[in-house]
Amino acid sequence: MTKRRPLIAGNWKMHKTAQEARDFAMGFQEKVGDVTDIDMVVCAPFTALHVLKEELEESIVHIGAQNMYPEVKGAYTGEVSGPMLLDLACTYVVLGHSERREYLKEDDGFIAKKVKVALELGLIPILCVGENLALREDGKALAFVRSQVEKDLMELGPDELRKVVIAYEPIWAIGTGKTASAQDAQEMCSGIRSTLAGIAGSVAQEIRILYGGSVKSGNIADLMAQPDIDGALVGGASLEVQEFAQLIQNAR
Ligand code: PEP
Fold this sequence. Notes:
Blueprint: E1 7-11, H1 18-32, E2 39-43, H2 49-56, E3 61-65, H3 82-87, E4 90-95, H4 98-103, H5 108-121, E5 124-129, H6 133-137, H7 141-152, H8 158-161, E6 165-168, H9 182-200, E7 208-212, H10 220-224, E8 231-234, H11 241-251
Parallel strand pairs: 1-2, 1-8, 2-3, 3-4, 4-5, 5-6, 6-7, 7-8
Helix pairs in contact: 1-2, 1-11, 7-9
Residues 11, 13, 169, 174-175, 212-215, 233-237 line the site of phosphoenolpyruvate.
């Protein structure tokens, strides 16, 4: 079986000023400087990325953004392009987060374009998928997530697909304190992997799948023990140095 390198990604959402980001980066590096068996990334607001570049560019902690426009430049007022993220030392970018799908009405066609452009530029997309509570209660969670994965990755060939990271985030578990049980999360991640196998054949075994939704230092170990869960996308618990560093230690 292919060994996939674990990844823990923090998603700060709309939190932290530049100074707060600097304080975090300094404290966090001290605590996780010896972690070489897990990839770590902090996905910050655009306005904090220049500070993270100064503090983390030379460190083992990677820098990520939370969105990107699917054109490299042009008349797109208020948007930020992939080359701009590369300039700020980003290696990852979160795409298709459920909050953007809901509040900014991003659809799968638009997200698929972003994923494609990110890969062309050499950024690693963390593609978020996940069902809401109504779909889960109707027994339609897997069918829904499968169709998101198929639509969002539609434009990619096998060499691009192997670089993608998928984050399975049930919407009902994000920021609510309700985590999917490790078994339910495994079942969904395994379903996602079989969908990937339908698209990409054996390359599916190389693609990292993260779980996201109220992940904390206290529940990460159970999640990581599942065969198809390769890490986590972490919101609230990534905001505090002590908790995020502990979560990473417990993930090992
Ligand atoms: C997220 O922001 O993607 C997330 C999963 O948030 P939380 O960990 O706070 O549920």
